[in-house]
TrEMBL record:
InterPro entries attached to this UniProt entry: TspO/MBR-related_sf, TspO_MBR
Protein name: TspO and MBR related proteins
Keywords, alphabetical: Membrane, Transmembrane, Transmembrane helix
GO CC, any one term: membrane
Positions of transmembrane segments: 44-62, 74-92, 98-119, 126-149
GO biological process: tetrapyrrole metabolic process
Gene3D superfamilies on file: TspO/MBR protein
Family classification: Belongs to the TspO/BZRP family.
Superkingdom, taxonomy of origin: Bacteria
Organism of provenance: Aquamicrobium aerolatum DSM 21857
Statement: the UniProt record of this protein carries the keyword ATP-binding: no
Pfam families: TspO_MBR
């Protein structure tokens, strides 16, 4: 029972935190006025994609947290989460695509480090991060395009 209670806590932290960050750092008029690349997806797609990704991130973190042999991976997990939660305020609230680019590159690195650290001992956690890596790679390209176009 305690095992699954900790899973609920991870889900609340990651999904709840992500939704809270998203709700308090909305794109708004500033974002609407930006020049965006032709491959910019519609705004409605971001919430469902991030919700699914946050569930995967939480489950991967929970799985690794339970293992004594993957403590280094938890540092990478916490790093990517902190950077993830930082990106929206930097981009949408501070209106700073340049700093957001630095944040997202660091996040991308933390995701790769996490995946590398867990791959041999907990491949499921590594695979749970694969869609996250793909989406953040795409988001990095979007961030770079917005930075360059504006």
């Amino acid at each position: 029972m305690t095992k699954y209670f900790s899973l609920v806590l991870f889900l609340l932290l990651v999904v709840g935190g992500g939704l809270l960050i998203g709700a308090t750092n909305v794109p708004g008029a500033w974002h609407a006025a930006l020049n965006k690349p032709s491959f910019n997806p519609p705004n409605w797609i971001f919430a469902p994609v991030w919700t699914v990704l946050y569930v995967f991130i939480a489950i991967a973190g929970w799985r690794v947290w339970q293992r004594q042999d993957l403590r280094e991976a938890m540092w990478a997990w916490w790093s990517q989460l902190g950077l993830n939660f930082l990106w929206s305020p930097v981009f949408f609230s501070l209106h700073s695509p340049g700093i957001a680019m630095v944040v997202i590159l660091a996040m991308l690195a933390a995701i790769v480090v996490f995946m590398r650290l867990v791959w041999n001992n907990d491949r499921v956690s590594g695979l749970l991060f694969a869609p996250y890596l793909a989406w953040v790679s795409f988001a990095t390209l979007l961030t770079m395009a917005v930075f360059v176009l504006n």
